[in-house]
Amino acid sequence: MSKKSNVWQFFYKASDTVATCGLCQRNYSRKGRGTTCLRNHLKSRHPAEFMTLSENIKYVVKREIGSSPSQHPTANLELKLNEPDPDPLETGHGNFGDTEDLLINARCDEKLALMMFLNQSFDLINGNGFISFVRTLQPRYVIHPKIYYEKILCQDIHRRIHSQIKQQVDLLDAISLSTSLWWGGQGEGLLSLSCSGITRDFRFNSFMLRCEAINFENAIKVSRSIRDLIPTLTIELPKDKIFCVVRDEFSAPPGSLPDCSAHRLQMCVRFALQSNEVLMNLSSKCKQIVDHFAASKMAHDHLKFIQEMRLKRDPCSILNTASSKWNSSFRMMGRLLRMKDAITLYADENSLIQVYPDEWIDIDLCLKVMQPCEEIMKIWSTPSTSASSVIPLVAALRDSLRTDVHNYVSSVTICSFARKLLEELEMKFSHITSDIKFLMATYLDPRYKQAFFTEREEQMVANEVLLQLSRVQDDRDGQPLMKISKVSSSASLKNESKIDSILDTMLTNGTTNTQQATTSFGSQSQIKNLLYLYNSEPRIGREMDPLLWWKTNAKYSAMFPIVRRFLSVPAASIASEGLFKESSNVYNDMQTVLSRENASKILLIKSNFNMFISRD
């Protein structure tokens, strides 16, 4: 056998009768054959390499890429979509090789679709570098038109996600819904509906039920979308499962305050700042400084030189934080304060607005007043943080602001700001001491129980618990009462958080009140005895997981249904903001070729990616 044909650049002889493909490493029998079968193999399995055989130009295949398949192979493997001609060298039995290749190609299609639409853009598919990269990894893989991958996501994967969401909802006995609306700077936005609940094995689950991409919509249309967000949901939600709905500032009914505690706190800070003319002028001056360095690379480099060479410090960069963020002023002033010396030197030598020494003091004190608000926002922004933390953290913030009003009495500006912030806090969070959702969630959290309750609130909770337990007494879902084993709380973790320090102090001082409250349940009935035992348990450390505590205390199984119901309520509803900021590529594509309907489906897939897709 003579190696005259250049087809042998892709094959080598394993023996006199067997040739091995250097691209896919498969062995093929060629007994009694020439090189025609080798060419046919390249044509079938490696079309890109086959086209390089100039002497066989007559065999170049005209690929039809205009037509798209009706269904992705992962949905129905019996459809042989875009399948090449059978390989004449295939020596396997039956169609095993074809089925295996189909599965591999389908897997590649799905992963490529997810990568393109969730993290990149439509334009990626046309890049020469990307095409070359894919062919290097998988020479036999054929890159399809963009609409093919869009269809995989918006039909096959979306259908699968929809089914998995329904399964998760079915596993929850009680759910809390959250609506959230976020606007970008170019008229685009995101409206979302989230679901949270606690499984029977006490795992907190949170996932997105619906996403609506908004693009240059008018107020009436947006209002209609908010109104229809839950009623038009394609997933059936039994009414007896829905415990409550938490709405953020922008999705709440007109004229009403949001249910979202995070947005209420944002409003407190915003109104307190806006009412303080001195701080508003100081914030405006800080923004002018930031804009000066953001607009001039020379000025930015000079400031960096002052920090490194003259002050011998690690350079900090001045970032112009987006004005849409609630804490933009806080972070901007904090960064400028850290660069105070360098900015002062620069201003002395250049035409830059001056910040005077007394103004730097006001900035410093203002940041100290706002620091607990920032810390609370971080806590509430965690999806697993429940409404049980609202009463304790508001109490700690109230205590911090009262201390600030007393300590900063010498500064009229800061004392006035702290007093106004305290007034806004009292007004916008006055409902939490009468809303049974917050009271019950706090009581059922073994970290807090009754530590922050007045006698009136203790009695409200006692009556509600007895009412709730009487309803579930005949339908208990846990184990029978077991031998009581007390669980001691672990030592509190040391940290530098101001709000944590205040909260720990309040909990330590409130121990006596908790023990006194147990006398209110001094009855001989089974339910009241159970509550007496729960109240007698020492509170666990704040760093511990309350759901794990309930899971390991099966003696309180009669309380499990109400625990899952009230601890499922999230402290905040801010899911749209994070998802929107991570999805700029989706909104860019929506301006060109991506429909709003498909953009909404892709956003839903992206929001649930870590919970569903990444597990596959």
UniProtKB/TrEMBL annotation:
This is BED-type domain-containing protein. GO terms for molecular function: DNA binding; protein dimerization activity; zinc ion binding. It is found in: Nucleus. Residues 2-53 form the BED-type domain. SMART domains: ZnF_BED (SM00614). PANTHER family: ZINC FINGER BED DOMAIN-CONTAINING PROTEIN 39, ZINC FINGER BED DOMAIN-CONTAINING PROTEIN 4. The keyword Ligase does not apply. It comes from the Eukaryota. The gene is Dana\GF14464. One of its GO terms (cellular component) is nucleus.
